[in-house]
Design goal:
The protein is α/β, with parallel strands linked by helices. The protein contains 17 helices and 8 strands. The protein is 43% helix and 10% strand. It is elongated and about 95 Å long.
Length: 459
């Protein structure tokens, strides 16, 4: 039944003048039991559903704190919110309404419905070094370098005609025995296994490159070993290059080999008429004196990405590797079904990579450059999605320093739920202190073991 708060108030008023409760309930489309509970005082607030554990202002404070801490890189988990809630109602001597003493899934789902400005998202784990490297000053400095170089070589990074002159390269590892995330088994099964040919899987390096116009280069497949065998190179993608190293990862000699044998022949028709820009990370495995000399002689300009920023500035990391590895897992699953659980070997790896390269689409390369803000050039695209570089202590300090001006702070309105919230870094109130206090010790707290009903909370 759909009824409003106004309908409920009018129904209660009519019943107070002596009208029949049943007839009034039918008139306004309200369940009779609901109307009875409100008239008898069992429900103290006018509206659908029972009273909430916290007041609207307290819940609003939770929502604001979650958004503030999440924006700082210290997002709160459901478990942490429940712990803080139990501690808070205990300290405030609020009767605990939860059957098992802790909030359940029903409370959590209703809380999220009441505050649609919040949503559960899988976090991207960000190291402290990456967070610090993503400071706006560093990002702006990077784009200043790119713009300066583009001007010096008369290259317009917003002109579609320039897209084929922008290239990126990087390597990743492909596992030869990728397992399934989930399996369909009998309900109640406690131990679920997946049969394979053995646990000795390995990662094989592939070095990839592509341009902003969407054209990918054939891969450079790099094996771990001391000798190269012909059977390791049979059935691979057309034009692919193969190499070996003792560690199985890229080194300066192999990178130079890729640059001379695969990259330069592919862009030679471009370098004769203008410059080519190659973006890559500045790892030692990519840098050598011979590489710099060859690039200078070939009209190729090398641009090393700032340290610890490849996850946001490297076009391959941004938009290419994710769909590539998704398709790789599909190919491996099909291969395992066809071979009764066999894992890929160095002999079968080239043919599987050949299937993988057929799934590469121009949109993957274009999307990577667009996502990294390189083509069309847009530093604002990156600045608006930077992870927070401030720590919790810095935010609290900024909040305390702005205490006098907090009353004059502007308010922002949530786009999804319409609630007004102060635009302060972090509001210091009773409930917020619980969040910040528990947040600082959450790494020291042991993880709960067993079912949800067996979790213990601070006394």
């Amino acid at each position: 039944m759909a009824y409003s708060k106004e309908d409920l108030s009018n129904a209660m008023e009519e019943c107070g003048t002596g009208a029949s409760m049943g007839a009034t309930a039918r008139k306004y489309g309200i369940p009779r039991s609901t109307l009875h509970d409100h008239i008898s005082g069992k429900h103290k607030q006018v509206g659908k559903g029972g009273p909430t554990v916290l007041t609207s202002s307290e819940e609003r404070e939770i929502a604001l704190t979650c958004m503030t801490l999440g924006g700082m890189g210290f997002g709160l988990t459901r478990n942490l919110v429940e712990i803080v809630l139990v501690e808070y109602i205990k300290e405030q001597q609020i009767p605990n309404p939860f059957r098992s003493g802790i909030p359940g899934r029903d409370w959590w789902e209703r809380f999220l419905r009441r505050w649609p400005c919040l949503s559960e998202r899988k976090p991207q784990h960000l190291s402290k070094k990456r967070a610090e490297a993503s400071h706006p000053d560093i990002i702006n400095g990077w784009f200043d370098r790119v713009e300066e170089l583009a001007r010096s070589v008369s290259l317009d990074l917003s002109d579609p005609e320039s897209a084929h002159r922008l290239w990126k390269c990087d390597e990743t590892g492909l596992c030869t025995a990728a397992g399934s995330k989930t399996l369909l088994v009998k309900r109640g099964s406690r131990q679920v296994s997946e049969v394979s040919s053995g646990s000795d899987h390995e990662y094989i390096t592939i070095h990839c490159a592509g341009c902003a116009s969407g054209e990918p280069l054939p891969p450079f497949i790099l094996y771990k070993g001391k000798n190269m065998y012909r059977r390791w190179m049979e059935g691979g993608p057309a034009g692919a290059l193969y190499g070996i190293s003792e560690s199985g990862w890229m080194d300066p000699a192999n990178f130079l080999s890729w640059f001379l044998k695969l990259f330069l022949p592919a862009v030679s028709h471009l370098t004769e008429t203008g410059p080519v820009l190659l973006f890559f990370d500045g790892h030692y495995s990519h840098i050598s004196l011979e590489l710099i000399r060859a690039a200078r002689q070939s009209n190729v300009h090398l641009l090393c990405l700032p340290p610890n920023t490849t996850y946001i500035l490297q076009p391959l990391d941004v938009g290419f590797f994710s769909p590539l590895k998704t398709n790789w897992r599909k190919i491996l699953k099909l291969y395992r079904l066809q071979t009764k659980g066999q894992k890929a070997t160095k002999e079968t790896f080239p043919s599987l990579v050949s299937q993988l390269w057929e799934s590469v689409k121009p949109e993957h390369c274009k999307g990577g450059f667009r996502g990294a803000g390189l083509f069309p050039l847009s530093r604002q695209h990156i600045l608006t999605k930077l992870p927070p570089s401030a720590t919790l202590a810095e935010a609290e300090q900024a909040s305390s320093e702005s205490g006098q001006s907090r009353q004059q702070a502007k308010h922002v309105t949530c786009d999804s739920c319409g609630h007004e919230m102060p635009a302060t870094p972090l509001i210091k109130t009773r409930l917020t202190s619980y969040f910040t206090g528990v947040l600082q010790i959450q790494k020291e707290r042991p993880k709960p073991v067993g079912s949800r009903r067996k979790r213990s909370f601070p006394s």
